[in-house]
Amino acid sequence: MVERRIKAAKFPATKSLDSFDFKAIPKLTRMQVLELARCEWIDRRENVIALGPLDFVPISKTGAELLFVMISQRYERGATLITSNLPFDEWTETFGTKRLTGALLDRLTHHVNILEMNGERYRLTQSRARTAKNNA
Fold first, then answer.
1. 75-98, pLDDT tens digit by residue?
2. Residue 113: what are its φ and ψ, rounded to 5°?
3. 5 membership: H or E segment, kind and range
4. Taking Cα atoms as reference points, which of 38, 117, 27, 133 lies closest to residue 79?
């Protein structure tokens, strides 16, 4: 059934944790990822924050306030997964005020699993490997 759904989704490439290169991101542990992959964090209403080299999308003051409202409403009622390319101490630049950022982080990090995914960008590494192979 899962294979049928993956095929129906028409993903450009099929990826799995079995093929993930954990050496590329030293701070990311296989045990933590496999634990999160079981999705029990969702039933426990915990959050996951993945920090790494992700693209930056600016957010307006209104957008920041609406995001805060959504996270506040989900606090201890539902699990939330957030990705960011900024460390926590730079979130004030995105959310505008220390007060809003502090309140947001307080709710997000109360029950949280943090994935530190700092390392070479996966696609860039793959592209460099292909280029090196083609030039050899």
1. 999 999 999 988 898 888 888 889
2. -120, 120
3. helix 2-9
4. 38
pLDDT digits (tens, 9 = 90+) for 5-32: 988 999 888 888 888 888 888 888 899 9
- What the block records as the tokens of 122 is 């996966």
CATH 3.40.1160.10 for domain 47-119, yes or no, is: no
Nearest CA among 59, 52, 48, 123 for reference residue 85: 52
CA distance 121 to 136: 23
The pTM of the full predicted model, rounded to 2 decimals, is 0.77
Which residues, at least 6 apart from 91, have a Cβ–Cβ distance to it below 8 Å?
A: 84, 101, 104, 105
Query: In 2-99, where do the E strands start and end?
Result: 47-51, 80-84
Residue 127 φ/ψ region, left for φ over 0, alpha for ψ in the -120 to 50 degree band, beta for the rest: alpha
